[in-house]
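Format is chain and fold; as here:
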Amino acid sequence: MKTSGSKLGIDATKKIPGEGFKRAWPPLIKRDESVKAKVEKLFGS
């Protein structure tokens, strides 16, 4: 078996219908306030 490199590219940009993306985007995920407080306690705000 012959391989041709070992790179993987991921395009995470938001697509639009003109680029062939037809379905609706899911709602944004929001973190829980308890998680926010814990992160701020650990790393500062």
In short: DSSP finds one helix and no strands in the chain.
